[in-house]
């Protein structure tokens, strides 16, 4: 009995850091992965501007490049840029994405789903739910900004 109490106390004390553990959420700009993009489906689409530039007005061909809002998530910020040609989503580029393996594998799936659905009404990618939610929110913000909306 004399040894049981100290063993119990030390066991609980050893588990406290495990219970209090929270993954880091701070990601520096240097650790940010390069933007991922999808190929344009329509010929004649214009090149996308740099992330810091404003959204250009609709061109005579009906092409618009619109950046969505930056959505902070537990894993890091998410922001997408959408290219619309004649009202159809032709290309999506991730301007900001968390530097996690789940995110890296989820973004191409999310982009493909968006191009198929032509909206932000898509399913989350299993294992990357937080990033998927941030992606969909940024995408919807970009679609809400398109002219005529």
Description:
With 149 residues, this protein is an alpha+beta fold. 34% of the residues lie in helices and 17% in strands. The chain has three helices and four strands, in the order αββββαα. It has helices spanning 4-20, 101-117, 129-145; strands at residues 63-67, 71-72, 77-85, 88-96. Strands 1, 2, 3 and 4 form a four-stranded antiparallel sheet that branches. The longest helix is centred in the first third of the chain and has 17 residues, at 4-20. It is rod-shaped. Mean pLDDT is 76; it is low at 26-34 and 38-60.
Short structural description:
The chain has helices at 4-20, 101-117, 129-145, and strands at residues 63-67, 71-72, 77-85, 88-96. By secondary structure, the protein is of the alpha+beta class.
What keyword list fits this structure?
single chain, 149 residues, alpha+beta, four-stranded antiparallel sheet, 4 strands
Write the layout of secondary structure elements.
Blueprint: H1 4-20, E1 63-67, E2 71-72, E3 77-85, E4 88-96, H2 101-117, H3 129-145
Antiparallel strand pairs: 1-3, 2-3, 3-4
């Amino acid at each position: 009995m004399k040894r049981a109490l100290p063993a119990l106390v030390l066991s609980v004390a050893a588990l406290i850091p495990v219970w209090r553990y929270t993954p880091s959420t701070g990601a520096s700009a240097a650790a940010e992965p390069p933007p991922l993009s999808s190929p344009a489906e329509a010929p004649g689409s214009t090149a996308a501007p740099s992330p810091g530039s404003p959204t250009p007005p609709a061109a005579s061909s009906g092409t618009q490049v619109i950046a969505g809002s930056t959505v902070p998530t537990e894993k890091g910020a998410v922001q997408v840029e959408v290219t619309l040609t004649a009202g159809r989503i032709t290309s999506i580029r991730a301007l900001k994405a968390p530097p996690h393996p789940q995110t890296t594998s989820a973004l191409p799936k999310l982009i493909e789903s968006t191009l198929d659905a032509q909206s932000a009404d898509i399913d989350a990618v299993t294992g990357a739910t937080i990033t998927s939610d941030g992606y969909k929110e940024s995408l919807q913000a970009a679609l809400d900004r398109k002219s005529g909306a």
